[in-house]
Amino acid sequence: MLIYSLLTDLARQSAAGLRLLLVLTVLLGVGYPAAVWAVAQPMGDRAAGQPVRLDGKVVGSALLGQQFEGERWFHSRPSPNDHDTLASAPSNLGPSSEDLMSAIAERRATVAAAEGVDPEQVPADALTASGSGLDPHISPRYARLQAPRVARANGLETRDVLGLIESSTSGRHWGFLGEPGVNVLQLNLAIARERP
């Protein structure tokens, strides 16, 4: 009798657990994602990752950094994962890491040589990655540092490139959070449109 009672209780509890599992699976596995999708639809491109288009073709996202190389383009921040969105993570190297200090010294020398400036003039965002390694923005200071090289390589006047930087600079969020930034992809597209 005791065994029968225990088995009955176990079956009843298992059935209750299974019903709860099914209800939560439907609510959280189907209902919640469907509700989030429905709420996001009126937001248009913001819900789709803010794709940036050139001649109707998606060339990147306003939310994700990407690598730009060569003299003609503004360069992004360094990325420990080469801007791979599937490997988004910081490098986990701290200020006492010899590897990090060596990488920063190497980046400082490389940027200073490329831009023709004193190594002490290279801003921090040219030397270190963001927390995700995917930040699409650089500081206005880093953009202005690159302006003479980009202007020269594209046959533009430096003052015109500085004007593009100014018009591409976004302010602080809500007027007080964060720092002003320049979206590198959008700035490079503006450079491409201005090239003779």
Automatic annotation (TrEMBL):
Residues annotated as transmembrane: none
Keyword Methyltransferase appears in the UniProt entry: no
Pfam families found in the cross-reference section: KdpC
Disordered: annotated segments: 115-137
Coiled-coil residue spans: none
InterPro entries in the record: KdpC
Quaternary data: The system is composed of three essential subunits: KdpA, KdpB and KdpC.
Reported function: Part of the high-affinity ATP-driven potassium transport (or Kdp) system, which catalyzes the hydrolysis of ATP coupled with the electrogenic transport of potassium into the cytoplasm. This subunit acts as a catalytic chaperone that increases the ATP-binding affinity of the ATP-hydrolyzing subunit KdpB by the formation of a transient KdpB/KdpC/ATP ternary complex.
Listed PANTHER family: POTASSIUM-TRANSPORTING ATPASE C CHAIN (PTHR30042), POTASSIUM-TRANSPORTING ATPASE KDPC SUBUNIT (PTHR30042:SF2)
The name this protein goes by in its record: Potassium-transporting ATPase KdpC subunit
Organism field: Aeromicrobium duanguangcaii
Designated gene of the protein: kdpC
